[in-house]
Amino acid sequence: MKVDENPSNLLLVGNFNLPDIDWENFTITHGLEHYSIQLIEKIRNTFLYQHVLEPNRFRHEQQANTLDLVFSTEKGMVSDLNIGPPLGKSDHAMLNFNLKTIIFRTIKPYCHYLYDKVETRLKPESRICQQLPNTD
Hints:
The protein is of the alpha+beta class. The chain has two helices and seven strands. It has helices at about 35-45, 125-130, and strands at about 10-15, 20, 25-30, 50, 70, 80-85, 95-100.
């Protein structure tokens, strides 16, 4: 399989572990961690959409955070995102979403001859000979 060197669509999913970013407003809520500022700038400069707006990490006696994120190049690529229960004993909730994408594949052309459909004798009264003068 050949991979496109310049993909037009991108989906980036992961635990970014940046609790100080307010993803609804694209601002830093407290502190000025260098990595948080860099990430917000990169997201803005690359025009990526961030789809997760609700907290998805819950730990006892701590504030819930939005740490697990889903970025895409197209707003419509990700739909029906919902936050499910944690898997096992994890304090991170599961993210469930639909991904809309296009898959390109190369179809190799081939020729299939239908020998049994060909008239073998071309007599003047045959159907194909009668139709030839009428074609453009």
